[in-house]
Amino acid sequence: MSDELKRQAAAKAVEFVEAGMRVGLGTGSTAAHFVDLLAARVREGLSDIVGVPTSEATRAQAEKLGIKLATLDEFPVLDLTVDGADEIDAELRMIKGGGGALLREKIVATASEQVVIIADKSKLVKTLGAFPLPLEIVPFGLGATRNLVELLAADAGCEGEISLRMGADGKPFMTDSGNVILDCAFGRIEDPEGLDDALKLVPGVVETGLFIGIADVAILSAAEGIEVLETDYSGEI
PANTHER family from the entry (predicted)? Predict the structure, then answer.
């Protein structure tokens, strides 16, 4: 997805923001364009906007651009969250977490009255799972947790390589909350709800990258233009 297409999707999402809103700020390259454009609108006079970032990277970007920030402790209910997705299906179920911020992203999104997703239209899939499913895991007992994830995923009809995400420094990638991530290459996930329920039975799993029943609107960008989908989408994929 080119930067220009990302920016087009982000620009459409900015149209959802109104003066006085508390806005969840997503993480990732597409969400970063939204933060840039929102900051521009604030400088142009969009008043009383307060952002709640989903990662330390987004916090640093928003602070640098002059967006007023707060936490969910200060504003436990948000008007809107705008974020990206790694995959999304016709029911607006998603896989997220490629950037490693899935736990905070899910907390912020579920605290929001409306969730708008911005993505490349190629992220729209018939069946989730081509993108490896991230799981945020407590570091303690990692081996035991991984074994139980493999067992319960198989019971839910999903098998594939489960790998510990590594950082550029050659050490395990650490999330902003001090956890690690398992990337699960399950392929087709025929029953996302069933898999999500099964994985949450594992004590060491903090959160899964399956975002189900969370998105209200998806803004998908492609060379031919922008498509806006809602939860009753019935078009061709």
Answer: RIBOSE-5-PHOSPHATE ISOMERASE 3, CHLOROPLASTIC-RELATED
